[in-house]
C-alpha cells in the first residue's frame, strides 16, 4: 500500500524477520548492538558533516537515492567507471581536498570501497536487503532515537474518568522525546 509513496519498498521478509528482536528490545530483554562507523582514511576531513539534504547540493549525482536505500537497509546497484556493482552504502565523507566519498561494502567480495561521488554515474535501489556491519551514517541525522526522558504519573483524562484507586493501579507511564529528522523539532509523548 506504500508503493505510490516510496521509491522502492524494502522486502517484507526483512521486516518480518526483525520483529522478534524489536519486541525483545521493547521488553528490555536485549540491548541493541552498537556498530562502529567506517574508519576514516588519513586524507579525510574528520570535522565535516554531511548536510541534511543531498538534493540541495545541486550536483548531478543520485545521492538521495543512495541515502534512501541506506536508511532502509537496501543494496544499491551503483554505476561507477563504466561498470555496475552492488553495494551496501554506509557513509558520506569529504576529503581534505574537497572531494566527496561514498563509503560502501561491495556485496560480491565483501571488501570496503570508497567511491568518489562526482564519478558515480548511476544508482538504482535493489530489493536486496542487508544487515549493517558498520553504523549507517547516510540518514539525515543519524540513527533515530526516542530516549526515555522521565517517569511521571499520567495526566491524561478521558471519558469515563478513573477513580484514584484505578489510577494508582495503572502505575507510572513513560515519557519519550522524539526528534523530527527533517526539521529537528522535538515532540514529547
In short:
This protein is 16% helix and 30% strand.
Draw up the topology in text.
Blueprint: H1 12-26, H2 63-71, E1 74-80, E2 83-94, E3 100-106, E4 112-116, E5 120-129, E6 148-152, H3 164-170, E7 173-179, E8 186-188
Antiparallel strand pairs: 1-2, 1-5, 2-3, 3-4, 6-7, 7-8
How would you explain this protein's 3D organization?
This protein is an alpha+beta fold and 189 residues long. The protein has 2 domains: 118 residues, no CATH class; 41 residues, no CATH class. The chain contains 3 helices and 8 strands. The strands form 2 sheets. The chain has a 5-stranded antiparallel sheet with strand order 4-3-2-1-5. It has a 3-stranded antiparallel sheet with strand order 6-7-8, with no helix packed on it. A hairpin with a 6-residue loop joins strand 7 and strand 8. The longest helix has 15 residues.
Amino acid at each position: 500500500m506504500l508503493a505510490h509513496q516510496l521509491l522502492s519498498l524494502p522486502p517484507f521478509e526483512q521486516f518480518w524477520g526483525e520483529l522478534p528482536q524489536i519486541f525483545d528490545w521493547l521488553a528490555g530483554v536485549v540491548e541493541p548492538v552498537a556498530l562502529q562507523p567506517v574508519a576514516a582514511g588519513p586524507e579525510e576531513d574528520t570535522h565535516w558533516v554531511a548536510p541534511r539534504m543531498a538534493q540541495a547540493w545541486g550536483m548531478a549525482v543520485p545521492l538521495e537515492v543512495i541515502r534512501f536505500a541506506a536508511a532502509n537497509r537496501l543494496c544499491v546497484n551503483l554505476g561507477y567507471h563504466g561498470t555496475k556493482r552492488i553495494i551496501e552504502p554506509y557513509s558520506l565523507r569529504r576529503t581534505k581536498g574537497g572531494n566527496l566519498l561514498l563509503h560502501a561494502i561491495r556485496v560480491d567480495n565483501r571488501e570496503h570501497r570508497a567511491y568518489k561521488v562526482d564519478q558515480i554515474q548511476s544508482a538504482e535501489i535493489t530489493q536486496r536487503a542487508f544487515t549493517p556491519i558498520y553504523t549507517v551514517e547516510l540518514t539525515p541525522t543519524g540513527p533515530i532515537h526516542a530516549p526515555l526522558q522521565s517517569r511521571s504519573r499520567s495526566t491524561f483524562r478521558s471519558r469515563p474518568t478513573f477513580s484514584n484507586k484505578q489510577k494508582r493501579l495503572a502505575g507510572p507511564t513513560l515519557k519519550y522525546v522524539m526528534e523530527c529528522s527533517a526539521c529537528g523539532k522535538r515532540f514529547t509523548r
